[in-house]
Amino acid sequence: MKKKRLLLAVTCLTLLLGGCAFGEDVDTTTIIVDKKGTVVESIVEDFDKDYYNADDLEGMITKEIQDYNSTAGGEKVKLDSFELTEDGKQVKVKIQYGSADDYKQMNERELFCGTVSDAYNAGYEFVSMTDQETGAAVSQGEVLELGNKKIVISEEALDIRVSGKITHVSEGITVKDHKTAVLPDDGEKLSYVIYE
Fold first, then answer.
1. Which of 125, 127, 145, 160 is the most buried (most CB within 10 A)?
2. Dist CA 57 CA 127 (whole Å)
3. Where do runs of H (alpha helix) occur along the chain?
4. Contacts of residue 132, Cβ cutoff 8 Å, sequence gap at least 6
5. Tens digits of per-residue pLDDT, 100-112?
6. Looking at the DSSP assignment, which residues form a beta bridge with residue 182?
7. Is the Cβ–Cβ distance between 194 and 143 less than 8 Å?
8. How many domains, the chain?
9. Domain for residue 4, yes or no?
10. pLDDT score of 48
11. What's residue 3's pLDDT?
12. Cα–Cα distance between 114 and 54 in angstroms, integer?
């Protein structure tokens, strides 16, 4: 009986950790957006210089998060993990944001997560996009008809991983798999990823 309970507990823990978007391991800097709109920034950077100091970097990140939270009026941002790879050549950092707006305010970089209608009402100007199923171009007007679908808008060159299936992307974006898109380095040009 004890073995069955232990096996059940281990199985449940594995499913909980393995099924959570925040537990996913990535090999490049990625913004992960869950079903509730919570944002996790999973940073993967080279850390191969002799003068780099992991403790100093972690301390700096922690202080920036504390400063933001004190001005935001609560714990809106949290450092989930900070680790060096076994060979010490890369650092992997996971930061959880209460919302895309917290990410935007703390990093001073554009990020929007919501519905297509919400984005339109917030003043975003839509661009032509590509339908991922057919490969067809979709006009700005047709994009607006996707009002209830979810959208992520970003100005950064990084990967975006969403909780659903990517259906439409703007120019220059490469779809890595049905949930992950690679955004181009187009300066401050916005990239759009729509999913269901």
1. 160
2. 38
3. 2-19, 54-72, 100-107, 116-121, 140-144
4. 166, 167, 168, 169, 175
5. 999 999 999 999 9
6. 159, 174
7. yes
8. 1
9. no
10. 83
11. 33
12. 35
Query: How high is the pLDDT of residue 49?
Result: 81
Q: Tell which residue, 55, 57, 99, has the closest CA to residue 77.
A: 99
Q: Could you list the residue range(s) of the whole structural domain that residue 160 is in?
A: 24-195
Is 10 part of a structural domain of the chain?
no
Per-residue pLDDT tens over the stretch 135-151: 999 999 999 999 999 99
Residue 110 lies in a domain: yes
Q: Is residue 59 part of a domain?
A: yes
Q: Which segments of the chain have a pLDDT < 70?
A: 1-24
Task: Compute CA distances 15 → 7, 23, 97, 150, whole Å.
Answer: 12, 11, 23, 26
CA atoms within 13 A of residue 158's CA, in its CB half-sphere: 24
Question: Residue 24: its pLDDT value, please?
Answer: 63
166-170 and 137-138: which strand pairing? unpaired
